[in-house]
Each structure stands twice: as structure tokens, then as C-alpha cells.
Specification:
Keywords: Cell membrane, Membrane, Transmembrane, Transmembrane helix. It is a multi-pass membrane protein. InterPro entries: ABC_transp_permease (IPR001851), LivM-like (IPR043428). It is found in: Cell membrane. By secondary structure, the chain is mostly helical. The chain has 13 helices and four strands. It has one domain: ABC transporter involved in vitamin B12 uptake, BtuC (Orthogonal Bundle). Helix 6 packs antiparallel against helix 8 and helix 10 packs antiparallel against helix 11.
């Protein structure tokens, strides 16, 4: 089975499983399943957004949680002032994420490597302390959201409506990611990651491509933040913390950096593993850390990337054994 067929059938099975989660929750009388998988979907969208610049563009952003928190606070502040208009919240989220992403990107993309990482982290920390200082919106304690976003007849206060909204947005994010990375835009982005000097010599304005990818990534993550606020009914500075950015990076690397579906697999794997370990011991982090290291060392392209490389590994084994593939 070639890589494309593996990817296709795995995607079909994953989507079918996600569609059946509400049915399972109803039959098994486990409403928590919808809430938990909704969280997986939200972080899957955030991981897809980061993978666009990290996996395909080679830009390690350690401040991506800024946009997750920004989307959450748009919902929280709007609800605090009595507005539950989801379309307005979405418009503000997209606009703010795009503007802040463009401004921070213009500064960050002047650097590479560790400097880029530290600048993105610095911007996220700056906004973190900004929201901590907003005492009228809860300050360090955060802000409760009394009313969820309303998109006409669609009420995100309903767990089922929120679940399917998150699932649709996840699928659209996957489609967007697939189309972008397989188009001229994605080829230039990946070429700049490998050798930016050569791409510039060929006449490509690589900085523009990278900035556009960065802005698209920020907007996607902001939309994930909007859903996350509706899921938790809360907006807090903790959503912008560097630890959340680190968690999203782990999801991307764990699932398969530079693959379209890998970030979703990483989000699912990390969050499910966390839940299982939490049920076993209160010292679950001591177990989770070595497990992540083990996966990264044994599967350099992540879990999904390891699965896609099955045919290549099989061919190498056959050649090593002296057989014809």
C-alpha cells in the first residue's frame, strides 16, 4: 500500500470515528466524551496552524498561544459587555489575529533560529501580562463567560453544536493546509526552509511568503481560541502562557511535523495519553515526559510520519535481507 493510499484511508477512518463520537457518548451515557474530543479538535486546529509555519516553513514559534488566548478573550470581553453575536466575535478575532500576526511577524521574520523563538515568546509574554493587568476583566483570575457565541440559529452553548462546529473547522483547516502546501505557495515556503538564499536568488520574495503563512497561521489559531472559550466558558491569561505554546509544539512534533494530518494525530495522542495517565497516577507528568522522548527518538517524523514511511522501511528491510522488493 503506497503512502497516498495509507494517508487517504487513515484520514477516512479518523473522520468517521470523529463523526461517531456523539453517538458513542449517547449510547454509553458518557457526555464527557463530547467535551473531551471537542478539546482535542480545538487543539488539533491550533496544532495545524502552527504546523503551517513550523513543519513546512521551519519557523519555530514559541508564542503561538498568544492567538489562542486572543480568540478566547474576544469572546470573553464581548460576553462581558452583553454581546453574544458570534459573527461579530469571529470578525474581531480574525481581524485582530491578522493585524497582530502581521505586526509581530514583520519584526520576528527579520531574525532566524533562537532569536526568532525568543521574539515570538517575548510578544506572547507581553500580551500575557497585558491581560493580567486588565483587572476589569478578571486580571490574573480570568474572566467567566456567561453566554456562548450565537451564529444565528447555531448556539455554541450546546455541546453538540460546538463539537460539530469544531469538527467542520478542523476539516476546513486540514483542507486549507493541504491545498497551500501542495500549491506554488507551499513549495516556495518549503524551499525557503531548506535553502532561503537559493530561493531568493531564483527571484522569490521569500519574506512575503513566510509572512503570509505566519498571518494565516495566527488567524487559524485565533479561531481555535474562539472555540476554546466557548468550550471552557472561561478566558484566562493562562491560555497565553508559554507552556501552552510548548504543548502545541509537542503536538506537532509528536504527530508528524511537516505532514498535513500529523498535528491532529499529535493532539489526539497527547491529550488521550494525558487523560489515561491522570487516571492512573497523580505523578503522570513523570511518565509522559519520557514517553514523548521515546516516540521522538524512535519516530523522527512523528507517529503519523512513521506510519507513512512503512513502505520505505519495508523496502529497506527486504534489500538488507538480499531479497527483491
Amino acid at each position: 500500500m503506497n503512502t497516498k493510499r495509507i494517508s487517504f484511508w487513515f484520514t477516512v477512518l479518523l473522520v468517521l470515528a470523529l463523526l461517531l463520537v456523539p453517538l458513542y457518548a449517547q449510547v454509553a451515557a458518557e457526555p464527557f466524551a463530547i467535551t473531551f474530543v471537542s478539546r482535542v479538535l480545538v487543539f488539533g486546529i491550533a496544532a495545524i496552524s502552527l504546523n503551517l509555519i513550523l513543519g513546512f516553513g521551519g519557523m519555530v514559534s514559541f508564542g503561538h498561544a498568544l492567538y489562542l488566548g486572543l480568540g478566547a478573550y474576544v469572546v470573553g470581553i464581548a460576553a462581558h459587555h452583553g454581546s453574544d453575536n458570534g459573527w461579530l466575535q469571529l470578525l474581531i478575532t480574525v481581524g485582530l489575529s491578522a493585524v497582530i500576526g502581521a505586526l509581530t511577524g514583520l519584526v520576528s521574520l527579520r531574525t532566524v533560529g533562537v532569536a526568532f523563538i525568543m521574539i515570538t515568546l517575548a510578544f506572547a509574554q507581553m500580551f500575557y501580562f497585558l491581560f493580567v493587568s486588565l483587572k476589569q476583566y478578571g486580571g490574573d483570575d480570568g474572566l467567566s463567560i456567561p453566554t456562548r457565541s450565537q451564529f444565528g440559529p447555531l448556539d455554541l452553548g450546546s455541546p453538540l453544536a460546538l463539537y460539530y462546529t469544531a469538527l467542520v473547522l478542523l476539516l476546513l483547516a486540514l483542507l486549507l493546509s493541504h491545498r497551500l502546501v501542495h500549491a506554488r505557495f507551499g513549495m516556495v515556503l518549503q524551499g525557503a526552509r531548506v535553502n532561503e538564499r537559493r530561493m531568493k536568488a531564483m527571484g522569490f520574495a521569500t519574506t512575503r511568503y513566510k509572512l503570509l503563512a505566519y498571518v494565516v497561521s495566527c488567524v487559524l489559531c485565533g479561531m481555535a481560541g474562539l472555540l476554546y472559550a466557548n468550550l471552557t466558558g472561561f478566558a484566562a491569561p493562562a491560555y497565553l502562557a508559554w507552556t501552552v505554546s510548548g504543548e502545541i509544539i509537542v503536538m506537532v512534533v509528536l504527530g508528524g511535523m511537516g505532514t498535513v494530518l500529523g498535528p491532529v494525530v499529535g493532539a489526539l495522542t497527547l491529550l488521550v495519553t494525558e487523560e489515561i495517565l491522570k487516571a492512573i497516577t497523580e505523578h503522570w507528568m513523570l511518565i509522559l515526559g519520557p514517553l514523548i522522548v521515546l516516540v521522538v527518538l524512535t519516530a523522527k517524523r512523528g507517529i503519523y510520519g512513521y506510519m507513512l514511511d512503512y513502505d520505505e522501511r519495508r523496502e529497506r528491510r527486504l534489500l538488507a535481507a538480499g531479497d527483491k522488493p
